Amino acid sequence: MKKCCPIVSGGLNPVRLKPFIDVMGNVDFITTMGSGVHAHPEGTRSGAKALVQACDAYLQGIDIRDYAKNHRELAQAIEFFPEK
């Protein structure tokens, strides 16, 4: 069987990233996080930064709320996007 790379989409945003990574067991996947990036209150660039920050927090074993204390884009995403 050929290897494949999973793709996640549909309602994902920086706040919802960790539970998905937990299910996958790693960060080796593609995300097509459209609204989770483009709907960020400060626009697409800040949304992309928030996504990277959420992933960095996960990789460092830091809760995103703690990580967000020093990362403005992630803090805004946490405030803007619902957890569920």
UniProtKB/TrEMBL annotation:
Q: Name one GO molecular function term.
A: magnesium ion binding
Please report a single Pfam family linked to this protein: RuBisCO_large
Residue ranges occupied by any Ribulose bisphosphate carboxylase large subunit C-terminal domain in the UniProt entry: 1-81
Q: Which SUPFAM superfamilies match?
A: RuBisCo, C-terminal domain
What protein name applies here?
Ribulose bisphosphate carboxylase large chain, catalytic domain
